[in-house]
Amino acid sequence: MKSIYVAASSQHVGKTTSTLGLVSAFMRRGYSVGYCKPVGQRYQDVGGLRVDKDTLLFADLIHFDLEPKIHSPIILGPGATTELLDHPNKYDLDKLVMDAARTLEASMDLVIYEGTGHPGVGSIANLSNARVAKMVDAGVIMVVPGGIGSTIDILNVSLSLFREMDVPIIGIIVNKVIPEKQAKITRYVKKWLDRQGLPLLGVLPYDKTLAHPVMKSVAGSINGIVTHNQDKLNNKVEDILAGSLIDLKELKSFKNLLLVASVRNLDAALKKIHSISRMINKEESPLGGIVATGQGTPGKESLDYIEFHKIPLVRTNLDTYGSVLKISRIEVKINRNTPWKVKRAIELIGDNVEIDFIAESIGLKKK
Question: What is the model's pTM?
Answer without folding.
Answer: 0.83
